[in-house]
Structure formats: structure tokens, C-alpha cells
Amino acid sequence: MELFYEPKNAVVGDVIPFYDKGCFKPFYLKGNRGYFGEDSTSGWTMLTTQDHLHFTESPTGIRGGTGSVLLVDETYHLFYCTFKQNPKRETVKHAVSKDLAYWETLEEESFTADGEIYELTDWRDPFVFWNEDAKEWWMLLAAKERGKTARRGCTALCVSQDLHHWEIHPPFYSPHMHTSAHECPDLFKMGDWYYLIYSQYTGRFQTYYRMSKSLNGPWTAPANDSFDTRCFYAAKTGTDGQNRYLYGWNPTRYYNNWNYNPPIYPGKDYNSFDWGGAMVVHRLVQNSDGTLGVTVPDVVDQALKIHNKTPLSPMNGPWEVGGAFAATGNPHGFSTLLFQNRVPEVCKLEMDLTFSETVREIGVALQVNQEFGTGYYLSYQPHRARLEWKSGLRMYDEGGWTFPFDVEMERPIALEPNVPHKLKVFIQGSIVVAYLDGQVALNTRMFDYSHQLFGLFASNGTARFDNIRLWT
């Protein structure tokens, strides 16, 4: 069973969510990575699923970049973009279909940026929606506003009465923050709030969101204005009318597309990330103040049914262990414990974490060796209010051979001491997706270590790990 969709001999790029007649039908940009077998397909590909676990694929014949799909009066409309170099130009295109199988591109409706309000070089990822207040169609695009500052990335706006003729308007959202276009824009309303989502690879490589009580703004950045790490990109949302889901991709590290990988490093954990990988789907959670969190979809959470025993072996520090719990009190040191279980290829590890006020970190080790050294560490650090990920490369130093930055992956979250907090970690091969308290997600990868052990650790205080469950 797969928890996160990965096509055979290909990768999942940007996902275009769509729900149609009782079924999820997310489209995605399929990259075949140079595979040209008889079963090879690429470009826009439609998935069909009822549960985000089991998928069937249908190629569309559309070649181009991210966009949006909608059904109006029994006609499906697909908006996408194409790319041209020398000179660089990006063009919005419109295709229609009656059955989602055969698409006709209306070439005469293609259009580029105007060169007056917006730069001609960036004009992509059209997202189309009906503005009920204005009684017209609005299109949001990834664009760059003309101007003096380098920080011209924006969300552009076009307006139409009929989905066929579009007028270019001033930007929908232009904070003069980013040097590149606001990629993969998405907009939806939940309760009293509107939410604008976009992705960025300058400043921070993440998917952001902004919130407002009106389509006219102002668009406020919440304290935690992103959904996940650099390992979850180009995320867009879709809904079945009950739940809203966030679809993104967790990238591989196989290819040196940017000529950035260390030439002497034999593994992959130190490599730059590729475009595309596996599809990961979060369920959005709206908090009482309007801010958004993410958690695991219920079907994915319940997919693995076999409960595995987890024999626990203390390594250092004082421990009390039982069948499904472990506790340590180590006010001035670091306590570690190993499972006797090897990490399965596909699994879910869940537990409740409780820690005292003085604890510096508490967490789970993945693919750790018998000496509790090399491996991967998922650590909650109360004094920094963050969930951090660090890989085995951080466990030693050979004359300065370490990551050139202090934090590898992190997600902000502030947790109270002396109360239990629920951690769920999902693994599929090299993919790791962790959820903390049904609010924060952390996507990452682990390439260089496998078939090793789980572990627990805590430092400088009292910590408990309760209700430990390993599911396969």
C-alpha cells in the first residue's frame, strides 16, 4: 500500500485539485524523468480517487504548466500556461471538454502579460473562480509587476464576463516582498474568511497563505504563514464540500539539476531537491481565530491496520519502560532509548509526548544505528517553539563537512509543558511526513540510511512517551 502517490517511472509535479460529481479528480503535472517506455506519458494527468489512497490515471494530452479546472453548464474548462524562451514569454491558454477525456485548446483565446502593468516574462499558473459579489469571473496569476524594486513578485488579476475574453487589471496582491512571481495561486472561502495561497522559492522555499474578511483585502500574514517545509511545494486546495484538502509534492534528491550537489559526497541527503516527487495531501483545519493548521486525512490515518509490538531498550539515562510507554528523568543530560524494531518500508508511528518545563528537546530518531549516532532526528524544542528535523550528516564533523546552516527543516509550534501532545509519523520508503497535535506538518526525506532502528530521546528534564503504537 502507498500512503503518498508516486506514479510508476515518473514523478508528481504541481497538483491541480478538482472535485467532480462525488469523486476527487486531481490533475497533476507528470514528469517522466527521461523514461520513454511504451507506457510512458507526461503532461497534465488526471487522477481519480475516492480516498486519496487508491488512484487511477488518465492522460489528458495537455502539455503545459499549472492552472485550474472548473465545470460550468456541463462544459469543463481547463486553464493552463505554456513557456517560450529567447525571448522568455509565458502564455495563458484555455481548453474545453465535455467528458474530461478529450480536450480542445481554444488557441485564439491565448494571451500574455501586457508589458505595462506586468512584466512579459512571468505570466503563469492561472486560477479561475467566480466572484459572486462582482458577478464576474476572476483569474489569479503568478506574475511580476513592473517597477524599480527587484521585489516585484505578485498575484496578478484578470477579469472576464464569459471565460473567453479577459481584461488585465492591477495586481490582486502585491506586497513587494518576493523577487519571483507568486506561483500556483489559489483562493477559497472558509467560514467568514477568505484565504489566498501561493508558493515561493525566494526568501523561503514554501507555500504561504494570507487571510482577509474581504476579497478586497487587506491580506494579513498570520504568525505562522506557511503550511509545511521546503519539502512540500506548489500546494493548492480542493474540497468535497465537507473537508478541504491541501495537495503538494514532496521532492526527490536524485538529480543534480542545478549543479549544486557536493562533488565528493557519496550519498543523497546533502543534495539539492529536484522538481517533483510524491504527492502528499493534508487536511486543512480552521482555528477559532481564522488561522489554518494541517493534519492527516482520516483515511490515510487509518490505512495501516497491523499493530506491531515495540520492545524498548534503554541506552543511556534513567528510564522506566512498559509495553507502550517510556519515561525518563534526566535533569542534566541526554537520555536515549532504542526500539528493537527495524523501520518498516511503510508504517505509522504514533505516541503522546509529555515534557517538563526544563526539557530542551524531546523526540523520535528514525533509521538510527545501534550506537544512537547516525540516522535522522525529529526533535521538538520547547525553548525554540519548533519541531526540527536533522539528518545523519549533522551527527559528526570531518574537518567542517557539515550542513552550511544551523537548521535543516523546522516548523514553528508552541506546546505547553506537562500535558500530552500527539505525534504521528508516516513513512513510505524515503518519505517522512510528521504531524504534531493535528496542527503542524513536517515533510522531509531520508535517503542515506535505511533498515535501521527507531529511537526515543529527551534532554535536561522529565519526559514521557505514552500510547506508543507502530502500525504497518
Question: How would you describe this structure to a colleague?
Answer:
This protein has 472 residues and is mainly beta. It is 1% helix and 52% strand. The chain has 1 helix and 34 strands. It has one helix at residues 298-301; strands at residues 11-16, 19-20, 23-24, 27-31, 43-48, 56-59, 65-72, 75-84, 89-97, 104-105, 118-131, 136-145, 153-160, 167-173, 183-190, 193-200, 206-212, 233-239, 244-251, 277-286, 292-295, 307-308, 312-316, 319-321, 326-342, 346-355, 361-368, 376-381, 386-390, 409-412, 421-428, 431-436, 440-445, 453-471. The longest helix is centred in the middle third of the chain and has 4 residues, at 298-301. The N and C termini lie close together (10 Å).
Determine the fraction of residues in helical runs and give it as a percent range. under 10%
What composes the largest sheet? 13 strands, antiparallel
Arithmetic mean pLDDT: 95
Strand content: over 45%
The total beta strand count reads 34
Shape assignment: globular
